[in-house]
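Reminder to self: tokens first, then the designed residues, so the page reads top to bottom the way the pipeline ran.
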């Protein structure tokens, strides 16, 4: 496999795989590890760590590879992959390259003795849990690495036999290709692509999956090693992969190629991530399943990076970046932008246009106020709940004052207007909570008593923010009739600067809460806000439908 595939592992015996592939969207769970390791999981000629030796600290993983200044491959990709898999990354540099996403322009190989000094310095001081080996450009470099591995004998060694870059540029000398065969004796897993697999078995590149599996089995048997056969170079949309053990056992991995040109460093990323995860899993099939799931997502999100004009890198930290705290103001601005259709719809409602021009019927306004009074009674309880959950004294005070204002000031305004402007059936209207009101109140109460602090704040914010915005937009359109506007007092209450200030404070509180919490809670907060915003739209339209 190259890095651009989605996999679905199923363990099969040595015979070739079925001609019917597993759908790419189906992830078949990897088999649970047995208490007695099977030949497919344990190399016959090498020791593996016991469960008692699994480190509790992050795995300390050494990458022995070349440097890629563009950051997509080599040790740069390895550092990112090891870190993404929860490991502590170290490096010993075998070669310096001049390259970018469009190709390799030059390779400089430092003296092999300098590499030897790097390796000896590291192992003299640091216990190394796993080693990933990448670009080894000369036979002398390979000899140094082999001798060091023979002395240190790391518990996990993954060899990615880098010979040709994804751009097609050669990265090693001819005699180094032959020397790599001897290095296999020090590795537990080798991860060649199909051209590299052909070199390692001394045969032409396999042109079919069946031929590639046979080559993988021959290499695994000859060297007593696990071989990851990768089908990324095969033609067609399918991208099968297989983990082949030294005794012929095969773990099939069916998948489809991911349509992306950003495959720079996929082999490096795969092998270093495998080395990291294997330290804890102790099972190559389980390690592969976890790493492939991560790498698939890294490829699918690679376009987000927008790096270079050629083959771009994978997005190693897509998960971390997608859950990172937003910048100040970013979360609430996105909420505001996302509810633009709701805001536009509010201003198009007959209730709003008639209200601002004073032509709204008293029956519709009375229904609205009666329902608003019932809403504010519940809203005040939700604001009080926000005060109970608030993490700071200032926020507690703000929400408690809001709850008091909802009960005392606004309810007084509602009672005063209804007493001066009685309408038919007003008593019946006041006695029942309308369907829209009940729906909105149920949503608020659910957020208040089942959600987080952030969810509560997000749920109550539209009542501040949207009302303040309506008052701001409609104020210039209001007819200049001194004391003659039938709904002037109500409009003035929301156009007041004190209310606008409260709305801004509520927005700031929500933005801070979003930065304090995690991505999952932010998603729930966004949903609560969007739901309340829609409820505000429905509430303004309720008099037309239900009065």
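Designed residues (547 positions):
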């Amino acid at each position: 496999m190259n890095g651009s595939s989605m996999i679905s592992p199923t363990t099969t015996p040595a015979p070739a795989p079925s001609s019917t592939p597993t759908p790419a969207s189906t992830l078949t769970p990897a088999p649970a590890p047995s208490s007695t390791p099977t030949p497919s999981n344990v190399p016959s000629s090498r020791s593996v760590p016991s469960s008692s030796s699994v480190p509790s600290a992050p795995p300390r993983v050494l990458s022995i590879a070349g440097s890629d200044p563009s950051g997509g491959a080599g040790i740069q990709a390895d550092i990112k992959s090891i870190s993404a898999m929860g490991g502590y990354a170290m490096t010993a540099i075998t070669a310096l390259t001049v390259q970018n996403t469009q190709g390799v322009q030059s390779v400089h190989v430092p003296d092999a003795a300098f590499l030897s000094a790097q390796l000896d310095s590291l192992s003299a001081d640091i216990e190394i849990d796993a080693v990933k080996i990448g670009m080894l450009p000369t036979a002398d470099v390979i000899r140094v690495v082999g001798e060091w591995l023979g002395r240190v004998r790391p518990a996990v060694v993954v060899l990615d036999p880098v010979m040709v870059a994804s751009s097609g540029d050669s990265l090693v000398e001819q005699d180094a290709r032959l020397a790599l065969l001897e290095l296999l004796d020090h590795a537990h897993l080798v991860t060649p692509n199909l051209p590299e697999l052909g070199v390692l078995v001394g045969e032409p590149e396999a042109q079919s999956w069946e031929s590639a599996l046979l080559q993988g089995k021959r290499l695994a048997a000859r060297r007593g090693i696990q071989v990851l056969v990768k089908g990324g170079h095969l033609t067609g949309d399918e991208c099968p992969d297989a983990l082949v053990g030294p005794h012929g056992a095969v773990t099939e991995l069916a998948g489809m190629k991911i349509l992306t040109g950003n495959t720079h460093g996929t082999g490096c990323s795969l092998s270093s991530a495998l080395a990291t995860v294997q330290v804890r899993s102790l099972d190559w099939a389980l390690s592969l399943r976890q790493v492939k799931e991560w790498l698939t997502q890294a490829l699918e999100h690679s376009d987000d990076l927008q790096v270079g004009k050629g083959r771009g890198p994978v997005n190693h930290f897509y998960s971390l970046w997608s859950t990172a705290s937003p910048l100040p103001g970013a979360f609430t601005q996105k909420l505001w932008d996302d509810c633009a259709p709701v805001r536009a719809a509010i201003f198009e409602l007959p209730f709003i246009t008639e209200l601002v021009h004073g032509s709204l019927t008293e029956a519709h306004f009375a229904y609205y106020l009666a329902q608003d009074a019932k809403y504010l009674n519940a809203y005040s309880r939700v604001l009080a709940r926000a005060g109970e959950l608030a993490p700071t004294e200032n926020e507690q005070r703000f929400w408690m004052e809001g709850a008091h204002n909802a009960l005392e000031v606004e309810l007084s305004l509602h009672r005063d207007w209804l007493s001066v402007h009685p309408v038919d059936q007003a008593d019946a209207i006041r006695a029942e909570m309308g369907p829209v009101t009940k729906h909105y109140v149920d949503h608020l109460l659910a957020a208040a008593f089942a959600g987080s602090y952030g969810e509560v704040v997000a749920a109550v914010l539209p009542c501040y923010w949207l009302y303040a915005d309506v008052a701001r937009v409609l104020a210039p359109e209001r007819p200049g009739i001194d004391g003659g506007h039938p709904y002037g007092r109500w409009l003035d209450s929301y156009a007041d600067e004190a209310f606008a200030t409260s709305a801004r404070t509520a927005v700031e509180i929500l933005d801070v809460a979003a930065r304090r919490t995690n991505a999952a809670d932010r998603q729930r907060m966004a949903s609560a806000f969007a739901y309340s915003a829609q409820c505000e739209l429905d509430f303004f339209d309720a008099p037309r439908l239900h009065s």
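The radius of gyration is 33 Å.
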